[in-house]
Amino acid sequence: MTENRTNMSDHAPHPRKVAVVGAGRVGSTFAYALLLSGLVGEIVLIDVDRKRAEGEAMDLNHAMPLSHTTRIWAGDYPDCAGADVIVISAGTAQRPGETRLDLVRRNAAIFQTIIPRITAHNQTGILLVATNPVDVLSYVTWKVSGFPSQRVIGSGTVLDTARFRYLLGEHLGVDPRNVHAHIVGEHGDSEVPVWSLATVAGMRLAEYCKGGGFVLSPETRDRIFRQTRDAAYEIIQRKGSTYYAVAVGLLRIVESILRDQHTILAVSNLAPGYYGIEDVYFSLPAVIDRGGVDRVLHLLLNEQEREALRGSALVLRGVLDDLRE
Ligand SMILES: NC(=O)c1ccc[n+]([C@@H]2O[C@H](COP(=O)([O-])OP(=O)(O)OC[C@H]3O[C@@H](n4cnc5c(N)ncnc54)[C@H](O)[C@@H]3O)[C@@H](O)[C@H]2O)c1
Predict the structure, then answer these.
(1) Beta strands in the chain (DSSP E)
(2) Which of the residues 2, 222, 240, 284 has an alpha carbon 20 to 30 A from that of 297?
(3) CA–CA distance from 238 to each of 27, 103, 140, 232 (Å)?
(4) For the residues of 2-34, what is the DSSP string, one character each?
(5) Mind listing the pLDDT tens digit for each residue in 82-130?
C-alpha cells in the first residue's frame, strides 16, 4: 500500500502519530486497540514482512469508517519521523531446540539493525519496547539509541501486574480495578509479587480479608502468584501466543504519554539505584507522562521482597553479561 498523504495546511494542528515496528500479532492487536481508542490521527505499520503490514493496514482501514478517523498505512523507517511514540514489537519466536539465550541473541541482533533505522528519522519520540525478553531488549534499545532512559520504556510487568490484579479481584470478589498490587522486577520467571504493599480500597490486603471474615493463606497467595507468573505458558500452550492483554497494556502506556496523565504503571526502565541495583532495565512502578518516565517510585519493600528483587536484577545482569561475550 502506497502512502497517500493529503496536503495539510501549515496551520493545521499536528496529528498525534504512533509508529509500530513489527506488525505481528502483538503489533497489529495494539494498532487495533489504538484505532478504537481514537487517541491518534496516524498509525504507521512497519514490518520486514511488508505484505503482512499491508494486509493489517488494509484490514484496520476498513474499520475506520465505523470507528475513528485515523490515517493508517504500511510504511518504512522514514515514516517514523514525527511519531510521538514508536512501539517495537518486532522479533522472532523461539525455534525448536533453541535456548533462551540464543533467542536473546537473535532478537538483540534484530534490534541492533532496527533501532538505528528508527533514530535516523526520529530523535525526539519515545521508544516503547514489547519484544521479549523485554527487559534485556529495552536495555539494548537504550544503549543503541543513545536516548535518555526516560524516553526508552519497556512494557515490563504492566501485563503481569494486570494479571495479578485480575486474579486477586477474582479471588476477593471485587472489581480488579479496585485492587492495587504490583509485580516488579523481570517480566519473566524471576518476577516478584509485592504482597506487603497490596491494597483494596486503601486497606492493606490482610485487613481487607479480616474485615470480610476470610484469610488469604500462604497456599492461596502462592497459587495466585504462580498463575500470574506462568500465565503466558498456559495461554501459549492453548492458543500459541498472547496478544490482547499486552496490546491493552501498551495502549495504557501510550495513553498516559499522549495525554500527559502521570499514570503509575510498572514499566521496564533503567534501575534507579534503589537497593543497590544499577545498570539493568527492570520494572518498578513509575510515573508516566508526556516525556516518558517522569519518576520511578521507591517502593518500601520488605526484606524478602528486596532480596527477590535483587535476585531478579542479577538474572537480568547475567543475560546482559552473556550478550556481551
Ligand atoms: N512484553 C510483553 O508483555 C509481551 C507479551 C506478549 C508477547 N510479547 C513479545 O512480543 C513479540 C512479538 O510477538 P508476536 O506474537 O506479535 O510475534 P509475531 O511473530 O506475530 O510478530 C513479530 C513480527 O515481527 C516482524 N519482524 C521480525 N523481524 C523483523 C525486523 N528485522 N524488522 C521488522 N519486523 C520484523 C515479523 O515479520 C512479525 O510480523 C515477541 O517477542 C513476544 O514474545 C511480549
Answers:
(1) 17-21, 42-46, 71-74, 85-88, 126-129, 152-154, 179-180, 183-184, 192-193, 199-200, 203-204, 263-270, 281-289, 292-296
(2) 222
(3) 20, 22, 31, 10
(4) --------TTSPPPPEEEEE--SHHHHHHHHHH
(5) 999 999 999 987 677 677 777 899 999 999 999 999 999 999 999 999 9
Query: Over the stretch 232-270, which tens digit does the pLDDT of each residue have?
Result: 989 988 998 899 999 999 999 999 999 999 999 999 999
Ligand 1 nearest atom to the CA of residue 242, by list position: 6
Report the candidate in 263, 265, 264, 278 with the shortest Cα–Cα distance to residue 309: 278
Task: Give, using CA atoms, the residue closest to atom 10 of ligand 1.
Answer: 131
Report CA(130)–ligand 1 centroid distance (Å).
8
Ligand 1 in reach of 158 Cβ (< 6 A)? no
Instruction: Tell me the CA distances in angstroms from 308 to 13, 34, 189, 247, one per residue in order.
Output: 48, 35, 11, 28
Residue nearest to atom 28 of ligand 1 (CA): 91
Nearest to 109, CA basis, from 125, 90, 128: 90
The residue type found at 132 is N
Q: Is the CB of 23 under 6 A from ligand 1?
A: yes
Residue with cell 485492587: 179
Name the burial class of residue 175, with classes exposed (0-12), middle (13-18) and buried (19+) by CB atoms within 10 angstroms of its CB: exposed
Check: CB of residue 307 under 8 Å from CB of residue 177: no
Is residue 154 within 6 Å of ligand 1 at its C-beta?
no
Q: Identify the residue whose C-alpha is closest to ligand 1 atom 2.
A: 130
Q: How many whole angstroms from 89 Cα to the centroid of ligand 1?
A: 5
Is residue 75 within 6 Å of ligand 1 at its C-beta?
no
| Whether the CB of 52 sits within 6 Å of ligand 1 | yes
Q: Does residue 238 sit in helix, strand or coil?
A: helix
Q: Is the pTM of this model over 0.85?
A: yes
Q: What is the DSSP letter of 176?
A: G
Spatial contact of 286 and 266, defined as CB atoms under 8 Å apart: yes
